[in-house]
Amino acid sequence: xxxxxxxQRLQSYIGKHIIGQEQLVNRLLIALLADGHLLVEGAPxxxxxxxxxxxxxxxxxxxxxIQFTPDLLPADLTGTEIYRQQEGIFVFQQGPLFHNLVxxxxxxxxxxxxxxxxxxxxxxxxxxxxxxxxxxxxxxxxMATQNPIEQEGTYPLPEAQLDRFLMHVTIxxxxxxxxxxxxxxxxxxxxxxxxxxxMTPITQQVIFAAREEVLSLxxxxxxxxxxxxxxxxxxxxxxxxxxxxxxxxxxxxxxATITLDRCARAHAWLKQRDYVGPEDVQAVAHEVxxxxxxxxxxxxxxxxxxxxxxxxxxxxxxxP
Length: 320
Description:
By secondary structure, this protein is of the alpha/beta class. It has two domains: about 5-190, 3-Layer(aba) Sandwich (Rossmann fold), CATH 3.40.50; about 215-315, Orthogonal Bundle (Helicase, Ruva Protein, domain 3), CATH 1.10.8.80. It contains 14 helices and 13 strands. The strands form five sheets. The protein has a five-stranded parallel sheet. Helix 9 (about 220-235) crosses helix 11 (about 255-270) and helix 11 (about 255-270) packs across helix 12. The chain starts with a helix and ends with a helix.
């Protein structure tokens, strides 16, 4: 089978088990193809945890779920050195971050030093314990979740560290028809006699090959310039209107440019196109930039959101 057909098989498998969250499924696959990490925000019960578990079932590799709590320590993620008395030596015991797919559930429940340990591993793809540095697996994807409706006892992620996430995905409730399908699926899975569908996992070699194809997609120079203009506009918003300059305090970094390019390419590839168009850039712009922009007090006083600012920028920049 071809690489794209294998990824489509994975997408179809996830879609059968995650109903009403097509956006989340698509963004999970984009993160897998763009070699990045996801921050997913949504109310409880919207299949955030289930989505990454189903993804793990369809991918060759190890999966581990970490429930973030206020008493968690960095060593609970990275691992620690254990002293073997009989041999008189210290041996490193790997932590849960050494798995291929990691679910960081309710990341804002843990203190800053634990969040920092996770975000450092995400950015550096390695962990340092004492004098030794250990490389993380070649296939390494973290999906962190946070609950937006309950902030008591939480530790908000610093804006500067949020930049380590490839995309910030927000999800909402399904509609009535989708919720009925969810109910039927839950009944089917609850029956003792029914056996859940088992998928033959796609290999890591398929994922690495897909990433190569994504990077090889053709992007015209005018589309590349359009992508750059969107990111640069967040730093010089006054060129597109005084109102925008009064709303933005800090714009997106060059990491956002790289990320927007990778995500737009992955989006086009999943649509089975051999080129990247402006519509691909627009499709992922909100998730890529949402957590990278910092609004000032004036914008907050006017009830503006980062999504609204991004939409305004896209509306005012000429499309090639």
